[in-house]
Structures are given as C-alpha cells and as structure tokens.
Design brief:
The chain is an alpha/beta fold and 258 residues long. The chain is built from 12 helices and 5 strands.
Length: 258
C-alpha cells in the first residue's frame, strides 16, 4: 500500500497523481519498469526515480519511523495496512488537571496483549513498554495523550513513531469524536461502558482516591482499556473503507481481553 503513495515525492501534487494514474502508473514499481513512459519532464523524472530508490530501501529495512514522518497526511492510512500486525494502541485518562501528577490510567494493546497501568501502582512501567513498540496509535493523541505523557514523565518525546487515528479518520470524511465514529462504523462497546465518557472517568478516579471505591477503579480501567482495544477495530474499519482487508479479531473476542 505504501508503494502506491505519491504525494510525499518532490513536485508531486494531487493533479500530477491523477495524471500518473491516467497513464497507468499506480505504484513505484510501475515508474521503475516504465521509466521512459513517465509523463514528467526529464529532471522531475530523475528526481522521482532517485527518491523512489531511497523509499524502497527504507521499505526493505521496515523503517516505520521513516514512512510515518514522510508520508503525506492523506496517505497515513497506508501505514495501517502495511504494518497492521506491528501497531500498538493506547489511551490515557487524567484527573482533569492540566499539569502535575495528572495521569490516572494508561492502557495499551500491544502484541495482542492488554497492558494496564495505574497511578500509584505501576504507571512508570509504561515507559518500558514503549521501548518495545514499533508504531503507537491513538485517537487525538497528537493534541492530548502524547503531550500529556511527555509532560508527566518529563521526557522530550516518546521513543517510537506515533500515528493519530483522528486525522486518518478526518481524511476519510469521519470528522467527529471517537464514540460517534464508532457508531457510524457499527463498533459496539460492552453494555456496561456504553455512555461512559471522559467526565465519568474523572469522577471514577475521584471515587477511588477519596473513598477507596475499588469498583470505580475497575470501571475506570475497563473504560480506558476499551478505548485502546477499539482503536484496533477502528483501524480495520478504516482499511475496509479503502477496500483493504486485514486479519483483525472479531470485536467480541477483543472485548474478552478486558
């Protein structure tokens, strides 16, 4: 899928992509095998072929970080297809404060195993897990989750490439919050978590902190976990919209991870 992306190359815009397609150039391999037929000027053709050679080498090296940085925003969905089995999905909850000791729970679906981290227990272990992550996916993580994580742990950046599914959805025409997008794509959450939102998550934490209400803590962890698990389902649904089928477990089976 990545080898069908063009917009990251120098001098290639949407109109040029349309032109390439109309001449039968749908992948980088097409450009290499039919160089003389490329509908580009000589210099642009040479530049394109040189860049393709670099990109193909990075593809051989399975360099996810390179493609996450280079691909045009509208082509980021291709990462989901080419690296689906290597994506880890995460979500955080906070106590509603902007700064300080504000993260309450972090969950991450990593290598088909659900990891749960709680403030006051094992929250620092999340950094160790990140060292093993190849590509980290979130929803709205660019604006919220990742900056909050960096501030909380006092680190300049997370140690792995990150893709924000909110913007992948945006370029697909799905321009709302995660739960509304889930409804549009027929992703159904467990009954006990339907209708629970971020405000409830803050209240659940306060019930745990102030009243040691164990059930509130368990519900909070389940809520955060569902957000992480749902992102894997969302990724597969996004790919379906692009007519790409991946091997994703049924939603009911994924909920069993809770």
């Amino acid at each position: 899928m990545i080898e069908q992306a063009w917009l990251q190359f120098s001098g290639i815009g949407p109109k040029t992509v349309e032109k390439l397609h109309s001449y039968g150039f749908f992948s980088w391999t097409d450009a290499i095998e039919k160089t003389e037929e490329l509908p580009l000027g000589r210099k642009q053709r040479e530049t394109l072929l040189a860049e393709i050679a670099t990109y193909q080498e990075e593809k051989k090296q399975n360099n996810i970080a390179f493609f996450n940085q280079k691909l045009h925003a509208s082509d980021k969905w291709r990462l989901l297809g080419d690296f689906f089995e290597e994506i880890s999905y995460f979500d955080i909850e906070t106590n509603g404060m902007l700064y300080g000791d504000n993260i309450t729970v972090i969950t991450c679906l990593h290598r088909n195993q659900l990891y749960q981290f709680t403030n006051g227990s094992n929250l620092d272990d999340f950094l160790d897990l990140l060292e093993d992550v190849r590509l980290l996916a979130s929803f709205n993580g660019t604006s919220f989750d990742v900056p909050v994580v960096c501030q909380f742990y006092n680190i300049p950046a997370i140690p792995c490439p990150h893709i924000d599914l909110r913007w992948v959805c945006y370029h697909l025409g799905l321009r709302s919050g995660l739960k509304r997008i889930e409804k549009r794509l027929a992703i159904v959450r467990p009954k006990d978590l339907q209708g629970v939102d971020g405000t409830d998550a803050i209240l659940l934490w306060h019930r745990w902190i102030h009243y040691q209400d164990r059930k509130s803590l368990e519900q909070l962890i389940r809520y955060c976990s569902v957000d992480s698990i749902s992102l894997k389902v969302l990724s597969s649904k996004i790919l379906e919209k692009y007519q790409v089928v991946v091997d994703c477990e049924p939603t009911d089976k994924l909920w069993n991870l809770l």
